Amino acid sequence: MDIEINIALISMLAFALLSNIPLGYLRQGCPKYSIRWFVFIHLSVPFIIGLRISNNIHWHVIPTSIALAVAGQMIGSQLYRRRRL
What is the CA radius of gyration of the chain? Predict the structure, then answer.
């Protein structure tokens, strides 16, 4: 049972990071504070919440998932900037 929870936790956290890399890439090409910019930042949030609830992952994991989502956004924006140089 603990192995299943750990796999679900690692999968959810990996999703939080990896799904935000392309979203951060796309966000960097949008005007700041536009509708698309806002959507690209928040698009993964309902999916992360759904994964957390459906897998009965404790709410203490929320700060870690937010941190990984922000890290994914930052990685994606860095990739966009490097590609444009």
Answer: 14
Neighbouring residues of 61: CB distance < 8 A, sequence distance ≥ 6: 9, 12, 13, 52
Report residues of the chain scoring pLDDT below 70: 1
End-to-end Cα spacing for the chain: 49
The string of DSSP letters for the chain reads -HHHHHHHHHHHHHHHHHHHHHHHHHHHTSPTTSHHHHHHHHTTHHHHHHHHHHTT--GGGHHHHHHHHHHHHHHHHHHHHHHH-
Report pTM.
0.92
